[in-house]
Amino acid sequence: MLSLLYGVAAVSSLPHQKLREIVFLCLFSKDLGGEDTTKLLMETLNVARRHIAMGEEKAAKVREKRDELDQLIAETSTSYAFERIQWIERNILRLGLFEILYDQDVPPKVAIAEALRLCRKFGTSASTAFVNAVLDALYKRNTGEKVDLRPVGQASDALAASETLIEKIAPTLHETSGEPASQ
């Protein structure tokens, strides 16, 4: 049985969450300058080549809108510069916002919930709160609701604080592991 997801035929045996994860990983690996990651993703996620192709097709659609998506994210994240947003969160934001704005098959609240799921899996609790605040503000903006950017600012502050904490404890972690700290 085939269903329509992301404008492509999706095999019903592949859960929508798994396909979304593939899309995110395709976006993320491309940002890192990765070469063809089809084989690695197939082995890691235990999926068929056609599933990776479907994910890459959706990722290509997101990349087509990248400049617009990045601009909207930057305009919303005023207290945390777009360039500071880590690659994981940046690509989760791009995918979530793309689904909110352009994917009629995914309800906006589902797009936000799925972005948070990806963030919990691949990011941190502080980054999850940040992604939630940014996508919620962008969703409200898109529906014409009044947008309060204070939650984005608060989440930005928490994200910055967590980065500072990580920077402070990272050398300690390397010392206890016996590995040299990176310069």
Write the layout of secondary structure elements.
Elements: E1 2-5, E2 8-11, H1 16-31, H2 38-45, H3 49-64, H4 66-76, H5 87-102, H6 108-122, H7 125-143, H8 150-177
Antiparallel strand pairs: 1-2
Helix pairs in contact: 1-3, 1-5, 2-3, 4-5, 5-6, 5-7, 6-7, 7-8
DSSP E strands, number: 2
Structural class: mainly alpha
Strands ordered across the widest β-sheet: 1-2
How many domain regions?
Answer: 2
Under CATH at level 1, the class of the largest domain stands as Mainly Alpha
Uncertain regions spanning at least 5 consecutive residues: 1-12
> Largest sheet, if any?
2 strands, antiparallel
CATH architecture of the largest domain: Orthogonal Bundle
Approximately how much beta-strand content do the residues carry? under 5%
The H/E string reads EEHHHHHHHH
Give the distance, in angstroms, between the N- and C-terminal Cα atoms: 53 Å
What is the molecular shape? globular
In DSSP terms (H or I, runs of 4 or more residues), the helix count works out at 8
Overall pLDDT score: 85
- For this structure, what is the CATH homologous superfamily of the largest domain? NusB-like
Q: Determine the CATH topology of the largest domain.
A: N-utilizing Substance Protein B Homolog, Chain A
The value of Rg in angstroms is 17 Å
